[in-house]
Amino acid sequence: xxxxxxxxxxxxxxxxxxxxxxxxxxxxxxxxxxxxxxxxxxxxxxxxxxxxxxxxxxxxxxxxxxxxxxxxxxxxxxxxxxxxxxxxxxxxxxxxxxxxxxxxxxxxxxxxxxxxxxxxxxxxxxxxxxxxxxxxxxxxxxxxxxxxxxxx
Amino acid sequence: xxxxxxxxxxxxxxxxxxxxxxxxxxxxxxxxxxxxxxxxxxxxxxxxxxxxxxxxxxxxxxxxxxxxxxxxxxxxxxxxxxxxxxxxxxxxxxxxxxxxxxxxxxxxxxxxxxxxxxxxxxxxxxxxxxxxxxxxxxxxxxxxxxxxxxxxxxxxxxxxxxxxxxxxxxxxxxxxxxxxxxxxxxxxxxxxxxxxxxxxxxxxxxxxxxxxxxxxxxxxxxxxxxxxxxxxxxxxxxxxxxxxxxxxxxxxxxxxxxxxxxxxxxxxxxxxxx
Lengths: 152, 274
Known about the structure:
With 152 residues, chain A is an alpha+beta fold. Chain A has helices at 22-29, 86-93, 103-116, 122-128, 139-149; strands spanning 2-7, 10-15, 48-51, 54-57, 70-72.
């Protein structure tokens, strides 16, 4: 089936099998491998990306369901000149990553959270990131980074 | 994990969806947000031959004040239920329960209709709407019918929906200021409840729904009957499992669930009565 999507501002038209998961489409068809496959069961959040501006888990969405959508992946967060997105910058400055595997998903979930709650409390950040697991257990600095990005 | 191959068709109205599901017969399934169905398909626990995508039926996404009840379109997402000011005012128990479904990413996709039609006894919204005395509106080839939530759930993942029927609306009676509580006991934030309780108590009586305490979501009628008869909260909560049939799993034995349900019902009633 043919789908048309806009990913990180670029338009793509692709033929996909209906069973193709969005995460595999993004990684294997578009070669955007920043979006990770972690648990593959919509638990860990490593595959989070933005679908029409909201964080979703791309391992639990069919590519055909995203037909017509605007998608942003971690590759689309920095500016064209390489300037990091404020959330990426905040993760860097606050050491919000250890192994880095969960980081793309964390950044996508955290930016979506700040759209919904621009000035979250620490508790709201922790609850807002409940769909993202960090196996290094580096949550403390991740929360610090999100609060820093929110201007706190 | 990749689902088994299937054909995919998209419906733009409820009537078209029902016609498509009729054409494709019992091997076809509706898909809304897909957050219950797709995980099952990835595990090959479900292998539909055809998926009829109903998530784009935009006129089934709404939350409306309809006088004595709130009407919620089946394709309304959990996030929209959670953030609804209409529900915050008239059915805060439902809005709050929706905020406990999965995690934000899941709530951006999953729908109230999908969750109820899936009829998972471990899901939060079936038991919550059951406790609230909701009515479900179902559309089929020959028109619509209304099903009381208390008549809807038949067995594990089985509801009163016929193969060619689609849940279109959830009608939740206004709570009229009744006290309420939602207790979800789990070990990790985004997990299903090991046991959950949705309860309200007001001038018109009470309602107590149990999550993950049987093959279907459970209405703990014995608790409400006891309260109506003047029983104390502690005595009523002791009847929490009279209507339930808990089973054991990796998280809990039957004894543990039974004990937990009584504790959580007591806590819920205390909070709802405060």
